[in-house]
Amino acid sequence: MLIDMTHTITQEIPVCPGDPAPVLSKGSTITKDGCRTTQLSLCSHTGTHMDAPSHLLRDGRNLDEMPMSQFSGRATALDVSGVGPVITAEFLRSRHDDIYCADYVLFCTGWEGRWGTEAFLEDTFPVPDEEAAHYLTSCGLKGVGTDALSVDRLSGPPTVHTILMKADAVILENLCLEKVRGRKDFLFFALPMKFQNADGAPIRAFAELREKFEGERRRR
Fold first, then answer.
1. Which of 81, 84, 182, 216 counts the most CB atoms within 10 A of its CB?
2. Residues 50/151, Cβ–Cβ less than 8 Å
3. Structural element, H or E, at residue 210
4. Which structural domain range is residue 165 located in?
5. What is the pTM (predicted TM-score) of this model?
6. How far, in Å, CA of 149 to CA of 172, rounded?
7. The domain spanning residue 10 has which CATH number?
8. Distance, CA of 218 to CA of 135 (rounded, Å)
9. Is pLDDT at 161 greater than 70 in this prediction?
10. Which of 26, 23, 7, 4 is nearest to 174 (CA)?
11. 172 and 144 in contact (C-beta within 8 Å)?
């Protein structure tokens, strides 16, 4: 079973303060041109997207320079909606067994339920502190994701971003995680748009839940 973990890009979606809203306008039309096309104008960090290390680091890699193996792996989706505004290293260590074998750690903050509202932009979602970020890098992760706007406070410095990016990890933001909340060790794919010097890109993120898929196949 495949679970889509991606928000649809529309002109009304929330964006980080200072980023331009996406614009989707008519290109060709079937009536006039015989085919339909859409012109897209959007920031590389629009919607459900991935941050490359080059987003903040002068010598960081771009997404188009990374191997395809960077964009998939085993994931665990931690429910952090009740842990408070700060995700501590102590909390993560208490989930060591869930994190140890993962390539991606995804934080379910509960902010997905606010998508499309002004409340989504409230800067109170749970984020890792500096010690927690260092713990995550010690686990050798390919990436860290969240259903909120950022893994850092919008009102503060991008400390967590920088720590993760220095470990060559990618960061995923604005994920849809409700359907995988609390799931451990599932297959996860986050495929970024490929363009030159990509400091970030919209992604199509999805999970493969093998147990249900195999169960359904056996019943056929």
1. 81
2. no
3. helix 210-219
4. 2-219
5. 0.93
6. 9
7. 3.50.30.50
8. 40
9. yes
10. 7
11. yes
